[in-house]
Amino acid sequence: MLLLRGGDNLSCRAALRLEEVFTLDDPTGTLQTVWKVKEQLRVLLRTGSLEDAAEAKKILEELVKAADRPETNRLYRTVCRWWKEIEVLIVTGATTGKVEANNTAIKNIKRTARGYRNAANCKSVILLRSAVRTAA
C-alpha cells in the first residue's frame, strides 16, 4: 500500500519506510525506478501549463527508458496516444469525475434496490439521491 500512495502525501515515517523497502528489498533498483515513473506521471497530470507538461513528459520518457520494463513502456505509449486529451485536461481542468461518481452511486442504488416492487419508486430514489449529490 505504501507504494500506491503519492510521494508528496507520505509522512516522514512512511517516507523512511519506503526508503528502507527500496534499500533492503530492491537490490536491482527496479522497484524504485518504476515507482519514480508512477510519481512522474502524477507530476505530469498536475501541471498547470502545456510547457510544464511537455517538460514533465520528457522526464517521464527518460524514466521509462531507465526502467526498461514492458509495463512502463506500455504506460508511456498510452500517454503518447492520449496526449491531446491530456493537454485538454491541463488547459481546462475538466474531468468526468462527477459523472463517474453519479454513475457509481446509481449502480449502488440499483444493487440494493432489489427489494423495490415498484419501478417508479426505485427511479424516485435514484433521482432524489442524485439531486442531493448535485445540491451539495
Write a concise synopsis of the structure shown.
The chain is mainly alpha-helical and 136 residues long. It has helices at residues 12-25, 30-46, 50-67, 70-81, 83-92, 97-112, 119-135.
Topology:
Layout: H1 12-25, H2 30-46, H3 50-67, H4 70-81, H5 83-92, H6 97-112, H7 119-135
Helix pairs in contact: 2-3, 6-7
Shape: elongated
Distance between the termini: 31 Å
Biggest sheet character: none
Ranges where pLDDT stays below 50 over 5 or more residues in a row are none
Elements, N to C (H/E) = HHHHHHH
Question: Average pLDDT across residues?
Answer: 88
Strand content: under 5%
Helix content range of the residues, please? over 70%
Structural class, judged by helices and strands? mainly alpha
Number of E-type strands: 0
Radius of gyration, in angstroms, nearest whole number: 21 Å
Number of helices: 7
Describe this structure in words.
There is one protein chain. By secondary structure, this protein is mainly alpha-helical. 76% of the residues lie in helices and 0% in strands. The chain has seven helices and no strands. The protein has helices at 12-25, 30-46, 50-67, 70-81, 83-92, 97-112, 119-135. Helix 2 packs antiparallel against helix 3 (50-67) and helix 6 (97-112) runs antiparallel to helix 7 (119-135). The longest helix is centred in the middle third of the chain and has 18 residues, at 50-67. It starts with 11 loop residues before the first helix and ends with a helix.
